[in-house]
Design goal:
five-stranded antiparallel beta sheet, single chain, 2 domains, alpha+beta
Length: 613
């Protein structure tokens, strides 16, 4: 075949392909017909209902109600009675006129776009507008859903949604102006599950740009797909009760089901109220001015000194290393004396103590000796090696690392390194005495209340934890798979028994026998607990308590952290005990204790600074 014939055949084939393609576009595939007629069509978005959030008992925590937005298509707007329009929606006339002027100036740039003009109008306003809609060309109402909260609790936990802004759209091109997105809490963490998929109705315009009818009798309309519901691990009643107990207090409560890592309740106080959450756009400015920062989730974003609850970690590591055993005894001389006048103080109790008694009575001297035994272990060549080995063991307990929860703002807390102490003391100039505060959960260690509750769960499980999480089920099966892995801390189960027994005696030993958590006693519940009194440079000590119950086959593990509230055996222990009673028994019989906790205000003890407006 010569070049001339090859060229002719090539041209004919190209023409045939082009002809077939044009037929496909014009006659067969209506999608391209829609595209070709785009300028003659009006697309009205149908927004999906956002997925609901249900608690572990089937109660709705976050639901939906129908509301309406007033939309405007500037190219379709003709002269109308602005006074009547503004009376319906109670909006400023001059503000409306200004917006209309801006649209007229930018009409070429705007084209056929539609904009949200007024958000979430009332039912009464919608009815008035529906009657008079014909008088306001270019304006129309679309159905939306707004969040409702049947439980008056959990605002910080649920988080809020808001309309996307320009910065968000630049990073997330799959969204469009007018869409809503989860900003905080569960709404943010599970945005992809909850959001649903938009649909649209297609209408035909005539030569005068007036909407005449549905395009192709609705054949090209697409229904909105509602978001998937989520079953949260939260117990709604327990969440509500925890928030009640933290009235006029600063701190947090975290309750976990130990065997699964499911979070039963998580309270940050003071926190957002449901009323504030429901009106977040109106309340936002005032919320930001609140000196107690109610949007700050202390349960996952505050790295507090854990105090004496941290002694349990050192007790377990020391046993696994073989540097102490359950019968190891240390003396306490109202504290630990070292060097030239060095002293770590301790409260009065019998001496010497074994491991079980050291937990029960929370002896500082015992853990100063224990910590030194860990760091001075002769199988390591120097303090750097032994410290790094200790730190690696502590990391396994979930301290100094993120737990991998489904909170978008979870902190890792603080755990110092050898570099930390080289900077403080100088390279090679520090030893176990310089960093003795780590033995009792003070100094450079910082833990979130979530990490402390996770520690209680580890002890309850005798050696493992599952990443704490808020969701039991959802439309995304990968969510539940992610939170089924057990993380073992590398401590043999037998070494937990003395620690568990010490925690049991701290709560349940006869009065006067030295148990630091006797106020947490609940008849029949076999609560195992550990107090902590964390030193605080900003006023009174912080009150810390962690516990689990029952002792065997535990159902709940808890941490309570109350800022500037004093000893952990007082307020934190009593709050935790009431939470246990509520969860295990469903009802609280110790009403006098309950009322005492609710009515006691400790908030005023916490120094705050006024925020600038």
């Amino acid at each position: 075949m010569d070049k001339k014939n090859a060229l002719i055949i090539g041209i004919l084939l190209f023409g045939l392909i082009l002809t077939i393609r044009l037929v496909m576009l014009q006659l067969i595939d209506p999608q391209y017909k829609v595209s070709a007629q785009k300028n003659a069509l009006l697309y009205q978005t149908k927004y999906p209902a956002r997925g609901e959030i249900i608690d572990r008992n089937g109660n709705t925590l976050v639901g939906n109600k129908t509301t309406y937005d007033i939309m405007a298509t500037p190219i379709d707007i003709k002269e109308f009675d602005t006074l009547d329009f503004c009376r319906i929606f109670n909006v400023d006339v001059e503000a409306v006129k200004k917006k209309l002027r801006n649209w007229r100036i930018n009409k070429k740039k705007i084209g056929y776009q539609s904009f949200t003009f007024i958000k979430q109008i009332s039912d009464k306003q919608y009815s008035l507008f529906a009657e008079k809609a014909y008088k306001f060309p270019g304006f129309y109402a679309i159905s939306r859903t707004a969040r409702i909260y049947p439980f008056d609790a959990g605002a910080n936990l649920f988080g809020y949604i808001n309309e996307v802004d320009r910065e968000f759209l630049e990073k997330n091109p799959e969204y469009r102006s007018g869409d809503y997105v989860g900003i905080t809490g569960i709404e943010k963490s599970y945005e992809k599950v909850l959001r649903g998929k938009k649909g649209y109705n297609v209408f035909v315009r005539d030569v005068h740009n007036r909407v005449r009818s549905s395009f192709m009798n609705g054949a090209m309309d697409v229904d909105a797909e509602p978001g998937n519901n989520i079953v949260a691990s939260i117990d709604g009643e327990l969440q509500k009760y925890g928030e009640l107990l933290m009235t006029n207090k600063v701190g947090s409560i975290v309750a976990i089901e130990p065997s699964t890592g499911e979070i039963l309740a998580i309270v940050s106080a003071p926190g957002l109220t449901i009323e504030q959450l429901s009106n977040i756009r109106k309340e936002y400015s005032d919320i930001l001015q609140d000196p107690y920062n109610p949007m700050f989730n202390r349960a996952v974003m505050s790295a507090y000194p854990p105090g004496s609850v941290f002694k349990t970690v050192n007790a377990l590591i020391a046993q696994q290393r073989g540097v102490i055993n359950s019968e190891t005894r240390y003396n306490c001389y109202r504290g630990f004396l070292y060097g030239r006048g060095g002293r770590m103080g301790c409260h009065g109790h019998p001496s010497p103590l074994n491991l079980k008694q050291s937990i029960m009575m929370s002896c500082n001297a015992y853990y100063a000796n224990t910590f030194r035994a860990i760091l001075n272990d002769k199988k390591y060549n120097n303090i750097y090696e032994s410290f790094n080995a200790w730190k690696a063991d502590v990391n396994k307990f979930g301290f100094g690392v993120k737990l991998g929860s489904d909170f978008p703002s979870e902190l890792a807390g603080n755990l110092p390194s050898t570099e930390t102490y080289d900077k403080i003391h100088g390279k090679g100039k520090w030893n176990s005495y310089n960093i003795l505060s780590l033995s009792i959960g003070q100094g450079e260690v910082g833990a979130t209340p979530l990490q402390i509750a996770n520690l209680a769960a580890i002890i309850a499980n005798r050696g493992y934890w599952v990443a704490p999480h808020l969701i039991k089920e959802s439309g995304d099966s990968l969510i539940t798979q992610k939170y089924s892995e057990k993380h073992f801390v590398g401590i043999e189960p037998k070494y937990f028994e003395s620690v568990v027994e010490g925690m049991y005696l701290a709560v349940n030993a006869p009065p006067g026998s030295g148990g630091t958590a006797w106020r947490a006693h609940l008849e029949g519940a076999t609560i195992c607990g550990k107090t902590g009194t964390a030193q605080n440079p900003h006023g009174k000590d912080n009150s810390v308590f962690m516990c689990f119950a029952p002792k065997d086959e535990p159902q709940i593990a808890i941490s309570v952290y109350v800022e500037n509230a004093g000893a952990g055996g007082v307020w934190a222990a009593q709050i935790a005990s009431l939470v246990v009673e509520k969860y295990l028994n469903k009802e609280v019989e110790r009403t006098a204790l309950e009322q005492s906790v609710i009515q006691t205000s400790l908030k005023q003890n916490v120094p705050v600074r006024k925020r600038n407006k």
